[in-house]
Known about the structure:
Elements (H helix, E strand, L loop, with lengths): L5 H12 L3 E2 L11 E3 L8 E3 L6 H23 L2 H4 L3 H21 L4 H38 L5 H15 L30 H20 L1 H12 L6 H7 L8 H30 L1
Parallel strand pairs: 1-3
Antiparallel strand pairs: 2-3
Helix pairs in contact: 2-4, 4-5, 4-7, 5-6, 5-7, 5-10, 7-8, 7-10
Amino acid sequence: MALLGDDWVSMQKEAMDDRWMHVYPQRGKRAGAYMQGFAYDVHPYLLLNHNNDYDSLSTFAHEWGHAMHTVYAKQAQPFETASYATFTAEIPSTSLELILQQYMAEHAETIDEQLFYLGHSLEKMRGTFFRQTMFAEFELALYEAAERGDALSGERISEMYGEILKRYHGHDEGVVTIDDLYTNEWMFVPHFYYNMYVFQYATSQTAGTALYEKIIEQGEAGVENYKNLLRAGGSDYPYKLLVNAGVDLAKPGPYQAMIRQMNATMDEIERLLDEKESQIAQY
């Protein structure tokens, strides 16, 4: 976290030393991980189920993104505007995952280790940016069908989901073959049984990646810009807060940058695989 400045490091270190989190699984403990920061005059609490692997470390970074967002917002905002919307909530969590992934890849000791971190990053982008966008399009299609008065049987919903699933994965072009079995996947996605919000995972990852780029390119100014977004809490509409931070999610630029990031990751994976194959051939 040194990338984000001394104040960030010292506050997070103090919080960890004060045991704001329950770390390991135990009998009777709920699964998953989350950050709870609703009590304005009390520090955030974190629940983890840490298993000493990289997935757990990535989750650790993710939840501390939420916690530090809460800390910075409460320091700068009164009670009325300290809470922030989901639209901005997932930005620091996803950007901290990216900071971790970049750090681990840079310090990897072998090609296989680099490939592991890059593959993990690519899968995160696929699951959070690509897949959640697909989910959002499916939800929109459902709501539009309901507004038209269309009958929505389970069979019809599976047909709608299957069409989107196949289109996104290039089924008809022979890119990825989607078996009809997967057209009922929608039944098992809990997000679809709540209000429509999954698109915010994709927008948050996009914004988090754009802000990370600013940190890398602008150094201290980029870091301060990032922290100012966290300090803003819920003091304005989340879209406006992001525009103030230099990320306009109503324009194509941030999304194109996200796609470039995915392409660059795949290019680097291919380069490393070629390098590994060349090394094997030499022996």
